[in-house]
Amino acid sequence: MTRRFGLSLEAVLKTLAVAACYYVAGRLGLLGRLTVEGVIVTPIWPPTGVALAALLVYGTVVWPGIAIGSFLLIASLATPQLSTLVTVAGNTVAPLCAFLLLRRAGFRVGISRLRDGLALVFLGGLGAMLISATAGVGLQVVTGRLDTAEFWSVWLAWWVGDAMGVLLVTPLLLVLVGATGPLRLRRWKEMLVLALTTLIVVPLSVLGELSLLFLVFPLLIWVALRFQLAGSMLCALFASVLTTFEASTQQGAFLNLSAIEVMTKLQAFNGACALTALLLSAMVAEQRALRRSVQNACRELAEVLEHLAAGETPPDLPADPRADDSTRAADRPRDV
């Protein structure tokens, strides 16, 4: 009885924590909102990343926290109505479907394989977020707040924003909770140089009137090769957030562009950053794991050869079964 109550209390606390994190992430995401066809959209919607990370770490037991956080977030912006339940349902079902699809595909939270990165992109991000985008924008059309001719432009912006939340926020949260393994700070000098370079190159690329956004990608490649997921996703998120805020004011690389052009350029940049950081980090991690396994196999083989050369039985190999048979035969009593 006590154990069951303890587990229930733990589940309630996790659910409330997920709801709080979802709400805070939503408020932060709204700081970089844009207007497309009169509808407010966010190029990066962090709550989707928070929701999927919570499901990957804690399981489906915390799904009510996603619904509660979504409802509180909508209630903070407008008076809740019956149609609000449709948006809440879409925001809850989409991460749940992403979690189930990833689990079916054998996804590992460490994202240590290229197939894990591809699964997160196409199943968790681009695939499952079709649900939330369709439910949210479809509701706008049904209630008459959005014209049918404007459906696809708003739907595309909504869908990409939800997907970017998964691709940029979920991996970083998995790193922070230790699901991808312990953080190693042995190369702290290189990390310091890289951090200073990031703080200089990214603002220079984004804030300048010239379109120099391409300068971010060599930096992302460097980080992914040296520090894998932890460094590359942090760098990609910093670049995407800074670019989003610059696009919301239509300054720098987004000067004199229409709303559709701003959204197209911004989403293409954010998507390229997320894919470069995520897939390259997963590929490097997989190659390093393969190299370590080959090195371990070679080390074990060398030890076996040393024992064989010395005429000894290797410790991991069984002794000669014929010797055991002869010994047992010698120990058996003979008939007189």
From TrEMBL:
Positions with biased composition (Basic and acidic residues): 319-336
Pfam family, one: MASE1
UniProt subcellular location: Cell membrane
Residue numbers spanned by region Disordered: 310-336
Name the record gives this protein: MASE1 domain-containing protein
Presence of keyword Glycosyltransferase: no
TM spans (from-to): 50-76, 82-102, 114-136, 156-179, 191-221, 227-245
Protein keywords: Cell membrane, Membrane, Transmembrane, Transmembrane helix
Boundaries of every MASE1 domain copy: 16-288
Chief location: membrane
Organism of this sequence: Streptomyces longisporoflavus
Its membrane topology: Multi-pass membrane protein
